[in-house]
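Entry type: protein chain
Record version: 2
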Amino acid sequence: MREVSILGVGQTPVREHWELSLRQLAVEAGRAAMADAGVDHLDAIYVSNMNSDRLGGQRHLGALVADYLGQRGVEAVKLEAACGSAGSAMRQGLLAVASGQIDAALVIGVEKLTESPGRETTAALATAADADFEVEHGITFVGLNALIMRRYMHEFGYSHRDFAPFALTAHANAAGNPNALYRYAINERDYERGREVADPIRLYDASPIGDGAAALLLVPTERAPGAVRVVGSASATDTLAVHDREDLLRLKAGRTVGRSRLSPGWRRPGGHRPVRVARRLQHHGRAVAGSVRLCAARPGRAPGAGRRHRAWWAHSHLDHGRPEGARPSCRRDRPLPVGRGHPATARPGRRAPDRRRAHGHDPEHRRQRGDYRHPHPTGSVGPDGS
């Protein structure tokens, strides 16, 4: 198997793209990645998307995007794995290039969620859950995660306020990200005053939906020695229905992935590689880190840290190569969808459009007026958040 590198990247801002269609978003990100890489011909295109058929009436995105990118005739497919669609497409692109069958693979994640009524978007996102045993009974994705968060708080003795550092850090990072949807910081008082979405999840615990696309171009490392090398990749699954899981707070898929590719060779000598945990709700980051064994499953207290910091500090299980007494590496210090916006399968983050201002939806404009509110978070039922 060949080593693989990322030669080019492209992305669109996350916003309510009323002026752009799903195909236009995908093509814009794809062209940006190709231009960044200096490549004009592809061998394969992998498009990730979850909701195009239900919300946009469009399937067969692979051929559609290849056509509008001027790459007719190349291998092109759509991949779907709910919110993990982009990661799955990335892995397929990696395997294709590593195998030697493909020399230039374009991976695109694209989603358009804001043009449909809130109830339709919520119903579409809920199809990622078990249709017969969960969705049939009316529960939403946020509702399922509220049950998990409540159990997490009960198991480890946390209050809702203990999760504030996740949201505060995410918004602080989004404030400096030109592609983020909500480019402003919040404080602990803002976090606590957020309206309830699904107890105990409140406004700033869940990420708002958005439209956007991101793309990257993969090539053999031997052809681009100066590019970013991909050092590891793995994929695994758990039970789909939450009630079938052995442990509600441990993600078996994460543990499997950690054991398969996150090996000692993946870490830096004398320390760790930074890890970005992409998740839609606050408690996911802590659960994923514990399951992959980046941190202890039961959160601990960092030396000198107050109780509030326990939600993001933990004793590290990555002891190989770490100097004795070195600080744990599990921190929540990367921009995540809470401030950036969550276009489901299109990960990189974004900013708000000018047309939102005309309709009173621009975040900065509404904050100046003193009546700012997030739009409905991912998974809430309807714009009123009920």
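Comment: Residues 118-206+232-347 form one domain.
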